[in-house]
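re: that chain from earlier
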Amino acid sequence: MQWLFELKLMTTPNAEQFLSAGEYLAVVRDFALSKGISPAQLLEGSQIQWQDLIHPPELVNNLIVNKVGINLFAYLENPVADATEFGLRMTAASHGALGLAVQYANNLDEAYDILKHFYNTRINSQDVRIQETSGDIRVFLENKFVDEEVGPAVQQFFDLATLVSIATNTFHALDMTGLRGQIRLLINTPEPRFFPHASLEGIKTLFEQETMELRLPVAWKSAPLRAANPAVVEAALETCEQELQRIAPNDWLEQVKQFLLRELSTMPSLNDIAAQFYMSPATFKRRLAEYGVSY
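^ sequence. v structure.
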């Protein structure tokens, strides 16, 4: 097979290129108000107006979102427990088209593959990493950009909330019939007072761990989801593709490059690589052409 795949060298994105989905501002808003935090306190020193909290823009610069997050964190009395409550508020509906695609996937393996590939449609300064060991599926977060104003405790708050959201949405989406084991949430801090264990249905929380991550039995990979619907997934993924191109175009091209480097010895066909990225061959070729790249 003869093929051509030319990629321009990618420059490191600057801070202004890191964006978050605006819907998360609404989640932060509602959580802050439930804790008695006023809009003035939440928005102090940020470039966000109160009107933006009522009608969030489609995308928000991550530096601005971080400032709001710092303000939120400053008024929390029990951050680890509060992060859990915040994560529980992030239902599948909070995650837009990505939430739909994951919720209606055929099985857990497909759902997590979609999550990994399209997580950047929600925030492009962070990746979801999913690794498989002999006994577990590991899910953890990896930041691509470090905002020096965001201290480790603030980052930990939002990372924990994200993992709680993934864990609870996973539990409620899975058909648990016949499944053995449980979802484990590893947290690298001491257990705080009044931690809401009872709120984390189907999830075992382990404190003072070396890392912060989720672990699920690898035997669950093929477990079906309750609401599997291929038509919904197809429609949602089409939207995800459009969103990914808007929020993280270079990341998508880099993923294609890395996939080809890993599979170089097998020379994947156009159909194979298009399927890997949930596209038809024609759509995949069109996306490459937009970058001046051919395959």
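Residues 16-220 form a domain with the H-NOX domain fold (CATH 3.90.1520).
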